[in-house]
Amino acid sequence: MSDFFSPGWHWFIVAVSVAGLVFCVWLLFAASKTTSMSTDGTTGHVWDDDLREMNNPLPRWWLGLFVITVVFSALYLFLYPGLGQAKGSLGWSSEGQYQDEVAKANAKTAPLYQRLAAMDEKALAADAEAMGIGQRLFINNCAQCHGSDAKGSKGFPNLSDKDWLWGGDLAAIKHSISEGREGQMPPMAAAVGNGEDQRNVAHYVLSLSGSAHDSLRAQLGKEKYAACAACHGSKGEGNTALGAPRLSDKIWLHGWGEQAILAMISGGKHNQMPAQKAKLSPEQIHVLAGYVWSLSNASAR
After folding, report:
1. 37 in a known ligand binding site
2. Is the pLDDT of residue 227 over 90?
3. 10 annotated to a ligand binding site
């Protein structure tokens, strides 16, 4: 209830909740005092000549349960949050309970993470317990984008191969997880030239990886590719310091072919991986990074 944008909503919830309880109590007592509309104990309604609707009082056990329900509701609203922004006399909150449970879990696992934090990537990859923890951390925090098998999809890097935008050693992976990454390729149409020049550059880029291309266009596009070489390298080798992809292999993060490359040249691309340091402890990030490293270094496991 803390996200109310106006104090008026707080009082509205309080009024509705209290009025509801008061109405229930009034209805109970009003109904208990209602007398029959007929002297023979019925409501006076008759169907099929002899079918009469009775007006017997409610059973006492039912009345008792009703009263207990109302009292319980009032007591609950006094002890716990429920009346608008009121926190309740116990001061309980779901966020507070969550934080307490996280603190208890962290205290319980602290000795284990302390042991794992002293290991390098090869030792982590060879430790079955570390890999089990790393896999669960990956499924809970990374699989939404990179897939449960870490093979990624269009726009989301494959973490199980040797192709790394920002570097694949343990330190680089830990930095990526902790601080996040932001890759920006600006639109290059103005630097490359007109539509034909852009097509020529696209075919030159295809030629760098040995992909099917028009050799004449590739030859014409080599000079214009100089505008791209500052980030991707003169031979398309990429640059992990900038997160610039390698163009000399056949791994295409945003799609393969002339049209996909033209779209990148004309429109550019902005990719962002969110930082995880607010969600994961340094020890968890260390183990997770070791697991990610192991995916592309299977021989170490």
Report:
1. no
2. yes
3. no
- Any known ligand binding at 264? no
Per-residue pLDDT reduced to its tens digit, 245-270: 999 999 999 999 999 999 999 999 99
pLDDT band per the 50, 70, 90 thresholds, residue 83: confident
Find out whether 45 is annotated in a ligand binding site: no
Residue with tokens 């169907």: 47
24 assigned binding-site residue: no
Burial class (CB in 10 A: 0-12, 13-18, 19+), 13: middle
Listed in sequence order, the DSSP H helices in the chain are: 7-32, 60-79, 94-117, 121-126, 128-141, 143-146, 170-179, 189-192, 195-208, 215-224, 226-232, 258-267, 282-295
Predicted TM-score of the model (pTM) = 0.73
Question: Is 146 marked as a binding-site residue?
Answer: yes
CA–CA separation, 44 and 38 (whole Å): 5
- The DSSP result for 99-165, as a single string, is HHHHHHHHHHHHHHHHHHHT--HHHHHH-HHHHHHHHHHHHHHTHHHH-TTS--BTTB--SSSS--S
Identify whether the C-beta of residue 238 lies closer than 8 Å to the C-beta of residue 247: yes
